[in-house]
């Protein structure tokens, strides 16, 4: 009778727990979505930064022209005169996702613009990512850990930095795809069902569509399989989880145009094939071991080993020869720079020049994953306590991602989910230990005060009444909550209780692990405090650090808030005042924005697929005026755009990027030498600067007429007076400078019919005064 | 030495054959299917070696179709095998349905890729 009641109670409690965790998950989704809206609230609903503008433009094209035109799209607006095959060189996952989202909404008669859909794609997918984290962690360590990990992921700053509203980049959907693929892999591993294996391959396909980081998956999963085999954990579930994934995944990856035959031709994928073969050998061995008697098996092993070693050696030789025959040993530059962190800075300046490809600093770990960094070790330990296939996978995931994040700042993003999962496990284990200890102590305390009612014998009922009290206690416990993590704890208890009442024996065993009441209460309070600290930090990071769209800038001054909207001003000027077919040259950072916002043809853009072309622009920027004019004229350039932050103190301007232009240019055109631009190894633009520096195009275009602003030419970024203050431009003329001088646009003077002396003093003044912006430019907003 | 190894090998083959004879007919059918698929893949590889791999996507999809079929059949064999204790509660019908689904996906992809 009592047992039946017990069972009833437990099913009821399970049901309650399920409903509760469902609502918690919805709340987590809302949290993940809304914490990313700071950028929209503080600024406006715009696309951020550089790459998102390209994605936005592609999405616009997709929604306008349809999917077939998208695959065949040859873009002549960029990489002039080469052009770029967009359909074949872009990871289409993000665009297709947003495009179909837009299509769906419109067919439901919800008229949203493409831009709105693009802006909100990232927050929506971060909610999905939180749910995927819940599923993954639940497979590893149960519901409680899953919910904690989901909450942590919903607001981990590292992920927020890439998925605030408006940050419409591949990573926005790729992290969801990554976690979901891992979840399905673990799920397949746990259940051994071909159905999940199929889903896993499809999720992998989505990941391949979305991000180049898919190579991480296709190397991590083989590593895990190998780990399982080596540690003797091979099972037929492992075979079902891995073998179909390799075959289907390879085929699906080859379907994505940007990957294509690379899926079988490059070294990034070879590991998976090698492990595929090893897995088959191991599977065969296990099978034969199963059907043979042990003695015969021993005979077979000696026979096979003697033959097999020879075959293996031959295979390895062939493989090594194949790999070695390809020029970069079959690895692409980006992957090589992962394996050898110094590779990029040595050989490929273009990869090294991107700030997100630099190794991170220690503070950036604290900034991006915050308290999780301290919880991760505890999580790893609790993963080892009962080591299962799933938990060994998570451990492997965190170890590899820590390494990768140490190589590139950008890959901190891959570390973040792993850190969240680990911390979720750690937190939930800690909570369950402490609450359990409290639970065991509470009855004793209560026993002292009031006697147990209705002592109807049997240990069962004692347990039951204990539970009733535990319930009471946890109800009291619930009310004291102030934090969001509170609900999880509740559900965690709910999960744990049925387990505990399963047998009294285990209770007694667990009693040995009970901690003193005071210390466990204190520990819980401290953990809650830690969680609170994390929440505060995350909200701060989301609101202050990571929400700036970088297309609109703000600065707080003693006289209030300044908004710098110079980029859009300049791009709007370009689109209104230049011919449709005019070519605009700028450093590659601004290529995507120029094509997307100004709709003008650019020479190079952020895709950086052609090093020589970028080097040409870099050379032009670092050459003297005449040589630069010749280079630009040969490229049919009409306008040159430079970004200059010296007036308002905007640090990431072209002068600060200039050394990279020199390096990249010099890598292809050896007459550009970096030492020519450095004085005693120091990069400076003041009067000590080298003549080459003071005469190069970038210097001139940036500081032309700069002295007119304050009479001294004081550069607020470099914090120095500029070296050469009064000079004239002979081959370029200024046509537009934005309000805060952040973007300056110059026009190439048309070639002269005949050169009659070098000076043309009268030429520049009438034209510039013709454009009325010139008057506006003259007044300095700062004075 | 050589004689004993030869004798061992003979013993081994006999043991293998007798052990294999005990497997149910259903599994044997799957085994034949797997062997056939691998054999087809080998023929294609040999053909590629002789003629060349020019429509590489066709070659790739042909070989991977065979390999994939074999792998999926092995998975099915693992799942329906009565001796396998891990899949006791998985009915063979379910295993077969999963197998069919996986094959459909695989061959849809291959049809897309074959060019």
Automatic annotation (TrEMBL), chain A:
Keywords, in A-Z order: Endoplasmic reticulum, Glycoprotein, Glycosyltransferase, Magnesium, Manganese, Membrane, Metal-binding, Transferase, Transmembrane, Transmembrane helix
Gene Ontology cellular-component terms listed: endoplasmic reticulum membrane
Which is an annotated GO molecular function term of this record?
A: dolichyl-diphosphooligosaccharide-protein glycotransferase activity
Tell me any Pfam family this protein matches.
Answer: STT3-PglB_core
| Pathway linked to the protein | Protein modification; protein glycosylation
What's the cofactor?
Mn(2+); Mg(2+)
Describe the reaction catalysed, as an equation: a di-trans,poly-cis-dolichyl diphosphooligosaccharide + L-asparaginyl-[protein] = N(4)-(oligosaccharide-(1->4)-N-acetyl-beta-D-glucosaminyl-(1->4)-N-acetyl-beta-D-glucosaminyl)-L-asparaginyl-[protein] + a di-trans,poly-cis-dolichyl diphosphate + H(+)
Residue span, STT3/PglB/AglB core domain: 581-640
Which stretches are tagged as biased composition: Basic residues? 752-764
Q: What is its main location?
A: endoplasmic reticulum
List all membrane-crossing ranges.
Answer: 12-35, 85-105, 117-136, 142-160, 172-197, 203-227, 239-264, 270-288, 300-324, 365-385, 392-409, 415-434, 512-536
Q: Which domain of life is it from?
A: Eukaryota
Indicate, by first and last residue, each region the UniProt record lists as having compositional bias (Basic and acidic residues): 469-500, 771-783
Enumerate the subcellular locations listed in this protein's record, separating them with semicolons. Answer: Endoplasmic reticulum membrane
Q: What class of enzyme is it?
A: transferase
What membrane topology does this protein have?
A: Multi-pass membrane protein
The subunit structure is:
Component of the oligosaccharyltransferase (OST) complex.
* Protein family (similarity comment): Belongs to the STT3 family.
- Give the protein name, as stated in the record: dolichyl-diphosphooligosaccharide--protein glycotransferase
Q: What is the lineage of its organism?
A: Eukaryota, Viridiplantae, Streptophyta, Embryophyta, Tracheophyta
Automatic annotation (TrEMBL), chain B:
Q: Which UniProt keywords apply?
A: Apoptosis, Endoplasmic reticulum, Membrane, Transmembrane, Transmembrane helix
Instruction: Set out the biological process GO terms recorded for this chain's protein.
Output: protein N-linked glycosylation
Name listed for the protein in its UniProt record? Dolichyl-diphosphooligosaccharide--protein glycosyltransferase subunit DAD1
Q: Which organism is it from?
A: Stephania cephalantha
Task: Note the subunit structure.
Answer: Component of the oligosaccharyltransferase (OST) complex.
Question: Looking at the keywords, is Secreted present?
Answer: no
Q: Principal place where this protein is found?
A: endoplasmic reticulum
The job of this chain, per UniProt, is described as: Subunit of the oligosaccharyl transferase (OST) complex that catalyzes the initial transfer of a defined glycan (Glc(3)Man(9)GlcNAc(2) in eukaryotes) from the lipid carrier dolichol-pyrophosphate to an asparagine residue within an Asn-X-Ser/Thr consensus motif in nascent polypeptide chains, the first step in protein N-glycosylation. N-glycosylation occurs cotranslationally and the complex associates with the Sec61 complex at the channel-forming translocon complex that mediates protein translocation across the endoplasmic reticulum (ER). All subunits are required for a maximal enzyme activity.
> Has keyword Zinc?
no
Membrane topology, as annotated, equals: Multi-pass membrane protein
Residue ranges of the TM segments: 32-50, 56-76, 96-114
Subcellular location(s): the record lists: Endoplasmic reticulum membrane
Question: What's the source species' lineage?
Answer: Eukaryota, Viridiplantae, Streptophyta, Embryophyta, Tracheophyta
Biochemical pathway: Protein modification; protein glycosylation
The family note in this entry says: Belongs to the DAD/OST2 family.
One Gene Ontology term, aspect cellular component: oligosaccharyltransferase complex
Q: Entry's Pfam families?
A: DAD (PF02109)
Top-rank taxon: Eukaryota
């Amino acid at each position: 009778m009592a047992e039946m009641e017990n069972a009833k109670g437990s099913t009821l409690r399970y049901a309650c727990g399920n409903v509760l965790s469902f609502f918690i998950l919805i709340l987590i989704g809302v949290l993940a979505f809304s914490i990313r809206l700071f950028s929209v609230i503080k600024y406006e609903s715009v696309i951020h930064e550089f790459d998102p503008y390209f994605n936005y433009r592609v999405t616009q094209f997709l929604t306008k022209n349809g999917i077939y035109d998208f695959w065949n799209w040859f873009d002549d607006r960029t990489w002039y005169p080469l052009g770029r095959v967009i359909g074949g060189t872009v990871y289409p996952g993000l665009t297709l996702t947003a495009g179909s989202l837009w299509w769906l909404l419109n067919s439901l008669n919800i008229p949203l613009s493409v831009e709105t859909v693009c802006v909100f794609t990232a927050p929506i997918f971060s909610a999905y990512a939180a749910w995927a984290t819940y599923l993954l962690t639940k497979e590893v360590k149960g519901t409680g850990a899953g919910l904690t990990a989901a909450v942590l992921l919903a607001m981990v700053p590292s992920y927020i930095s890439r998925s605030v509203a408006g940050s419409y980049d591949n990573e926005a959907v790729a992290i969801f795809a990554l976690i979901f693929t891992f979840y399905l892999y673990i799920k397949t591993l746990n259940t051994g069902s071909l159905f999940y294996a199929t889903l896993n391959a499809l999720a992998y396909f989505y990941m391949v569509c979305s991000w180049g980081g898919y190579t991480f998956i296709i190397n991590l999963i083989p590593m895990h399989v190998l780990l399982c085999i080596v540690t003797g954990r091979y099972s037929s579930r492992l075979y079902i989880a891995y073998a179909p994934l390799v075959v289907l995944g390879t085929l699906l990856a080859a379907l994505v145009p940007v990957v294509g035959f690379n899926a079988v031709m490059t070294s990034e994928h070879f590991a998976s094939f090698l492990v595929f073969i090893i897995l088959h050998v191991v599977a065969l061995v296990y099978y034969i071991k199963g059907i043979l008697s042990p003695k015969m098996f021993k005979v077979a092993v000696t026979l096979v080993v003697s033959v097999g070693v020879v075959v293996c050696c031959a295979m390895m030789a062939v493989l090594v020869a194949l790999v070695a025959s390809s020029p970069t040993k079959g690895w692409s530059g980006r992957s090589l720079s992962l394996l050898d962190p110094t590779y990029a800075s040595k050989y490929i300046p273009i990869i090294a020049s991107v700030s997100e490809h630099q190794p991170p600093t220690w503070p950036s770990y604290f900034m991006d994953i915050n308290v999780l960094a301290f919880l991760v070790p505890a999580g790893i330990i609790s993963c080892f306590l009962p080591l299962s296939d799933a938990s060994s996978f998570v451990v492997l995931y965190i170890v590899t991602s820590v390494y990768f994040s140490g190589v590139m700042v950008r890959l901190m993003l891959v570390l973040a989910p792993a850190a969240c999962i680990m911390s979720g496990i750690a937190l939930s284990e800690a909570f369950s230990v402490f609450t359990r200890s409290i639970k065991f102590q509470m009855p004793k305390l209560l026993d002292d005060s009031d006697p147990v009612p209705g002592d109807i014998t049997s240990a069962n009922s004692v347990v039951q009444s204990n539970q009733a009290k535990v319930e009471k206690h946890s109800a009291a416990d619930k009310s004291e909550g102030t934090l969001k993590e509170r609900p999880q704890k509740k559900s965690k208890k709910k999960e744990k209780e049925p387990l505990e009442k399963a047998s009294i024996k285990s209770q007694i065993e667990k009693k040995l692990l009970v901690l003193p009441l005071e210390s466990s209460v204190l520990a819980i309070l401290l953990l809650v405090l830690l969680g609170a600290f994390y929440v505060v930090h995350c909200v701060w990071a989301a609101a202050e650090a990571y929400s700036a769209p970088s297309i609109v800038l703000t600065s707080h001054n003693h006289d209030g808030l300044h908004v710098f909207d110079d980029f859009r001003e300049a791009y709007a000027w370009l689109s209104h005042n230049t011919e449709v077919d005019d070519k605009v040259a700028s450093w590659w950072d601004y290529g995507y924005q120029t094509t997307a916002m100004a709709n003008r043809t650019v020479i190079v853009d952020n895709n950086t697929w052609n090093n020589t072309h970028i080097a040409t622009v870099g050379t032009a920027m670092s050459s003297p005026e005449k040589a630069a004019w010749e280079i630009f004229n040969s490229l049919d350039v009409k306008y040159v755009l430079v970004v200059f932050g010296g007036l308002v103190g905007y640090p990431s301007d072209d002068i600060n990027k200039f050394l990279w232009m020199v390096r990249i240019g010099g890598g292809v055109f050896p007459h550009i030498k970096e030492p020519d631009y450095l004085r005693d190894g120091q990069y400076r633009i003041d009067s000590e600067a080298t003549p080459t520096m003071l005469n190069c195009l970038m210097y001139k275009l940036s500081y032309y007429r700069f002295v007119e602003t304050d009479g001294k030419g004081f550069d607020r970024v470099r914090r120095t007076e500029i070296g050469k203050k009064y000079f004239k431009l002979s081959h370029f003329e200024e046509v537009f400078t934005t309000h805060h001088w952040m973007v300056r646009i110059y026009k190439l003077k048309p070639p002269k019919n005949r050169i009659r002396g070098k000076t043309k003093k009268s030429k520049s003044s009438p034209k510039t005064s013709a454009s009325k912006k010139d008057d506006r430019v003259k007044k300095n907003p700062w004075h | 030495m050589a004689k004993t190894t030869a004798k061992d090998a003979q013993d081994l083959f006999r043991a293998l054959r007798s052990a294999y004879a005990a497997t149910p007919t259903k599994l044997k059918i799957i085994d034949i299917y797997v062997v056939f698929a691998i054999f087809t893949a080998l023929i294609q590889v040999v053909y590629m070696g002789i003629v060349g791999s020019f429509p590489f996507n066709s070659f790739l999809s042909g070989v991977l179709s065979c390999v994939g079929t074999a792998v999926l059949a092995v998975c099915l064999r693992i799942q329906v095998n009565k001796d396998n204790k891990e899949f006791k509660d998985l009915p063979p019908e379910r295993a077969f349905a999963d197998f069919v689904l996986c094959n459909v996906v695989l061959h849809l992809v291959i049809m897309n890729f074959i060019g």
